[in-house]
Amino acid sequence: MAQEERPQIENEEQYEALKEKGYSKEKAARIANTNNAGKKGGKATTYENRTKEELYEQAKKVGIEGRSKMDKKELIKALRNN
Predict the structure, then answer these.
(1) CB of 15 within 8 A of CB of 32?
(2) pLDDT values of the chain reduced to their tens digit, one per residue, 82 residues
(3) How buried is residue 4: exposed, middle or buried, by Cβ count under 10 Å (0-12/13-18/19+)?
(4) Could you mention a single GO BP entry for this protein (predicted)?
(5) How far apart are CA 78 and CA 82, in angstroms?
(6) What is the DSSP letter of 36?
(7) Which domain holds residue 65?
(8) Do 53 and 79 lie in a common domain?
(9) Rounded to an integer, what distance in angstroms lies between the CA atom of residue 48 and that of residue 73?
(10) How many domains does the chain divide into?
């Protein structure tokens, strides 16, 4: 039986900690593979300070369905609940 292949994880420690907290494998991997994964003091702008186009692109990256019909507030809510 072949070993199940898994995408490379940039921050294995964070990935395992997120899985232990109940995150899905996909979401834990996505978080652990972000720039500066596991580092504090990130400099990301808040969703409210981003343009609708930036929010749309982020929603596209994480696979949120129905994003093309969402307004800015809906995109923010979807990204926060993803």
Answers:
(1) yes
(2) 455 565 688 788 888 888 888 888 888 888 887 766 555 555 677 889 999 999 999 999 888 999 999 999 999 999 888 7
(3) exposed
(4) DNA-templated transcription termination
(5) 6
(6) T
(7) 49-82
(8) yes
(9) 8
(10) 2
Tokens of 61: 């990256």
Tokens encoding 75: 């995109």
- Distance between terminal CA atoms of the chain? 33
Which residues are within 8 A (CB) of 72 and not within 5 positions of it... i.e. 6 or more apart? 52, 55
In a domain, 27, yes or no: yes
Write down the number of H helices and E strands in the chain.
Answer: 4, 0
User: What's the predicted TM-score (pTM) here?
Assistant: 0.51
Residues 81 and 55 in one domain: yes
Amino acid at 76: I
